[in-house]
């Protein structure tokens, strides 16, 4: 009887410890460019873990860049109705919270984000039914340049959609790479400056670029219902598999540009007309690149040269230096009249 009581006590203590650990689970903010750097944010009881084997379950999410430094429960997939999203044909929500459409052109690439140390391009696919003045377009691929690396992901073309097939393809520095088709399976670059994690077995991932960005991505088709509502007139040999994307950025410079990137500028005036059902923004010629991994658009500011990056960075720091608070503004620079 004594042994049973002892075992019962041990089991109770272990269970209590596990409960407390689960309750106290949280996220440590390790990115020095976020507002909650070095803080530990506790997860809610309803979602004590940051991971979930079932992609339909909510997980603990802590935005280390929010001044409140609190966590919340959310799904691990793009939210097409939140800032930083690029979904549908393509509808963007800028860093300023304003909704706009950028149609681009089918089978061409455009700069989505261009900063001194990060370039993100998107490849648009689509078609133009007879009688239409422009292409219907969707984002089919993303290309990233950072830290002297080139990374891309794309939705593979398919005539008909099958949920049991993974339509994502990846490449890193010119080499194809594969991520095991298992929920939560992860791939790291050699220097661990990029991470790919599957949110489900197929067609859904989170890409993390260290200290720069987190991107949630789904691959989806143009459905028959979409086709009926919008009169896309999708051909029988292509369901236009494309990406739904939500970006979260860290440490963007005030000079950031690109279709989406420029909406994160502190002084950006969005040309999208308020009150319009589909506010379309043009400027294709300013953002067009020659390929998915090129930085040759008219508004691109990405520099792969460390010397050039340091120069751009110093210019940005000098331009944003506040000399209104005494002899030094706290950046180790003495302001002189």
UniProtKB/TrEMBL annotation:
Keywords: Signal. InterPro entries: Root_cap (IPR009646). It comes from Arabidopsis suecica. Pfam families: Root_cap. This is Root cap. It comes from the Eukaryota. PANTHER family: ROOT CAP DOMAIN-CONTAINING PROTEIN. Residues 1-24 form the signal peptide.
